[in-house]
Amino acid sequence: MNWKWIGILSCLSLVSATLTVFGVMPEGGPGIAIGIVVGLGLSYVMARTTADRFFRNGFTLGVVSGLVVSLVQMLFFNTMVENNAQMAEKMSKMPSSVNPVVFMAISAPITMAVSGAFQGLFTLGMAALLGKRSGRRTAPPASPPSPV
Predict the structure, then answer these.
(1) Residue 89's pLDDT band (cuts 50, 70, 90)
(2) Residue 56 domain flag
(3) Whose C-alpha in 17, 34, 40, 60 is 20 to 30 A from the C-alpha of 97?
């Protein structure tokens, strides 16, 4: 597992979550498009810095990033709702018996799993585009012929 790069790249999720909390990150389609482009960039870096097990490294990156985003958004929930009009509108439509922060906490594992799956697939795809293969071999390499 490439924990060094997982930690470094997860910091970009911290930046993204902070931008979302303060209403700088666009909502809806443009925000999703930016997230996909950033995810592809992260996958490229992860595929370049990893020797094998690309899906597992990408999946772990996605899960850790999803955890970081969920925690930041739950911790600063009130600020996020104040700075995001669409979020405030969605929260006003929720039943009053449902606590939005608890709802986010319950849905966080699903978000993390989906994020991990996409990040893992993106990383595996980037590794294939870069021409990298897993370091595991099915048969030992052929030995050079011995001089007679």
Answers:
(1) confident
(2) yes
(3) 17
Of 76, 38, 62, nearest in space to 110 by CA: 62
Residue 147 lies in a domain: no
pTM: 0.81
First-residue to last-residue Cα distance in the chain? 44
Domain range enclosing 83: 3-129
Longest dimension (CA), the chain: 86
Rounded alpha-carbon distances, angstroms, from residue 86 to 73, 83, 90, 140: 15, 9, 6, 58
**Residue 111 domain-assigned (yes or no):** yes
CB 82 within 8 A of CB 88: yes
Cα(109)–Cα(123) distance, rounded to whole angstroms?
21
